[in-house]
Amino acid sequence: xxxxxxxxxxxxxxxxxxxxxxxxxxxxxxxxxxxxxxxxxxxxxxxxxxxxxxxxxxxxxxxxxxxxxxxxxxxxxxxxxxxxxxxxxxxxxxxxxxxxxxxxxxxxxxxxxxxxxxxxxxxxxxxxxxxxxxxxxxxxxxxxxxxxxxxxxxxxxxxxxxxxx
Length: 165
What we know:
Layout: E1 9-12, E2 15-17, H1 19-26, E3 29-33, E4 37-39, H2 53-57, H3 63-72, E5 76-77, H4 78-83, E6 89-91, H5 95-107, H6 111-124, H7 129-144, H8 147-157
Helix pairs in contact: 6-7
């Protein structure tokens, strides 16, 4: 999912547990209903988190909360994770309805630029600041020569909504 060129959206209704948490966190966007909870209860059966749960969460939440989730196996509310920026959209509707609205919005955008943005974000985890700046420069230069940028700039100058393929 992380290497997919298209943005990937998780819709979490009710909750995600174990590998479901890992799958949701591998997505670019997490949409959850207000009652959703995220649980890593492996410890309750003598196991440890897998599927990238600790790798993903260690970059997103404080170490103490990650330790609490893993050692106690207690659910954490979508609302709390929303406050921490892990959940992008907290919905009063079913999460899938809200996720589809988000997908429609994303689908109107420039697919090439979106894919490049995903690559930039993924690279930022391991690049030095200088290497990331170089990658941004090179990616921007490439984008400037493309049809999407031409359409976007023309639409801006003409004060209209861009129409991306």
